[in-house]
Design goal:
Number of helices: 14
Largest sheet: 6 strands, antiparallel, barrel
Radius of gyration: 23 Å
GO biological process, one term: inositol phosphate biosynthetic process
Strand order of the largest sheet: 1-2-3-8-4-5
Structural class: alpha+beta
Strand content: 15-25%
Number of domains: 1
Helix content: 25-40%
GO molecular function: ATP binding; inositol hexakisphosphate kinase activity
CATH architecture: 2-Layer Sandwich
Family: Belongs to the inositol phosphokinase (IPK) family.
CATH topology: D-amino Acid Aminotransferase, Chain A, domain 1
Protein name: Kinase
InterPro entries: IPK (IPR005522), IPK_sf (IPR038286)
Shape: globular
């Protein structure tokens, strides 16, 4: 039994856990789902699972904590909607050990998604007749789907207003367009495969955003090469082209997604991977500046912590023999909701009625000041990672992953430039 399930009451997990879209997913194509407040899950890819199972001790502080494997199926809820349900491997579903998720990957280059605002697809009878009808409708609607996909690619930077009343973090639900797209794609793929299977393995991972009230997340695609050793010639050429046409080839890093809270307007800003691919090196620098800017001022207090963690990660990776982290991402996370502390010489009664919005203007600097915020730096996405210790890989690399390390050093240098240029 996985640790996540072990912490639950038996009555709860024996019935399964309803999985919801993980609203802080800003990049990637694999569906990430919310298991509970502190845990997320994603489709099990054997290579990534092997990475977490054999992870070097010195790298563990720079990756999400691995918490086990669950079985996931889609079922009808009481309203006739399809939803994803997680069960323990030793629970209601048996014989899951040999399942693979090879068909979780998109079967075509056209990403299927929907404009529906609900998180669940409407129930449709899964039968031979439905499959035939579905294929006919898909062919008829192919042009429309392409138009929708083009619209999605053009909507590269979006702003959403966040309700200021109450807990800001409670208002995130339904807001992140990228997580909704990935969730809809996952349901669609699983529904299409229902004739052949309805049980999948998902891995459980630590929810890195759980400690933050309003998570600001930057997803960076690291390295000068993205294709794995097992990539087809078509996939290899496609990935090489993406690297050459983006900052990946020049500085070894590109923006894959971003979510930033704008304190000045109460909005969330989302930037997707399509925008990130088009950025020049200067544009990449400007995007980093935007990530550390809350709409009012630059969060300078974050720089030293980020630089320190990135430098430490670089030192760790330089010592990793044979590892290649192809198509892996790096997350930088901090809290957009700043914690405030009262100055020692302030009268508590004078500050009692001050709201957060008035602290900057009405209270003055003497009354409130921001405390140092915790910044997290973690590596994620290891579906194409390779190492000589894996054994079955036909290609064995020697030494450090120079492309990844190159990207880290450039990232550190650019953040230092922003820090120095914006210094008071």
């Amino acid at each position: 039994m996985s640790p996540a399930f072990g912490a639950m009451e038996v009555e709860h997990y024996s019935k399964g856990v309803l999985l919801e879209p993980f609203v802080h997913q800003v990049g990637g194509h694999s569906c990430v789902l919310r298991f509970n407040d502190k845990t997320i899950c994603k489709p099990l890819i054997q290579r990534e699972h092997q990475f977490y199972e054999t992870l070097p001790t010195e790298m563990r502080k720079f990756t999400p904590q691995y918490e086990g494997v669950v079985s996931v199926s889609f079922e009808e809820d009481e309203d006739g909607n399809l939803c994803l349900i997680a069960y323990p491997l030793n629970g209601d579903h048996d014989n899951l050990e040999n399942l693979d998720n090879s068909d979780c990957e998109p079967k075509s280059k056209l990403l299927r998604w929907t404009n529906k605002k609900t998180m669940l697809l409407e129930n449709e009878k899964i039968s031979k007749e439905w499959v035939r009808q579905h294929r006919k409708e898909e062919k008829m609607k192919s042009h429309k789907l392409e138009e929708e996909f083009e619209w999605l690619k053009k909507s590269e930077v979006l702003y959403y207003s966040v309700e200021k009343k109450g807990n800001v973090s409670s208002q995130f639900k339904h807001h992140n367009p990228w997580s909704m797209k990935c969730h809809q794609q996952q349901l669609q793929r699983m529904k299409e495969n229902a004739k052949h299977r309805n049980q999948y393995k998902f891995i459980l991972l630590e929810n890195l955003t759980s400690r933050y009230e309003v998570p600001c997340v930057l997803d960076l695609k690291m390295g000068t090469r993205q294709h794995g050793d097992d990539a087809s010639e078509e996939k290899k050429a496609n990935q090489i082209r993406k690297c050459q046409q983006s900052t990946s080839a020049v500085i070894g890093v590109r923006v894959c997604g971003m979510q930033v809270y704008q304190a000045g307007t109460g909005q969330l800003m989302f930037m997707n991977k399509y925008h990130g691919r088009k950025l020049s090196v200067q544009g990449f620098k400007e995007a980093l500046y935007q990530f550390f800017h809350n709409g009012k001022y630059l969060r300078r207090e974050l720089f030293e912590s980020v630089i320190k963690k990135l430098t430490e990660l670089k030192s760790v990776l330089e010592k990793q023999e044979s590892y290649r982290f192809y198509s892996s991402s790096l997350l930088i996370i901090y809290d957009g909701k700043e914690r405030q502390e009262v100055a020692v010489d302030s009268d508590p009664e004078d500050l009692e009625d001050l709201s957060e919005e008035s602290s900057d203007e009405s209270a003055g600097a003497y009354a409130y000041k921001p405390t140092a915020s915790t910044v997290d730096v973690r590596m994620i996405d290891f579906a194409h990672t390779t190492c000589k210790y894996y054994g079955e890989d036909s290609v064995v690399h020697e030494g450090q992953d120079t492309g990844y390390v190159f990207g880290l050093q450039n990232l550190i240098d650019i953040i230092k430039e922003i820090r120095d240029e914006s210094g008071e």
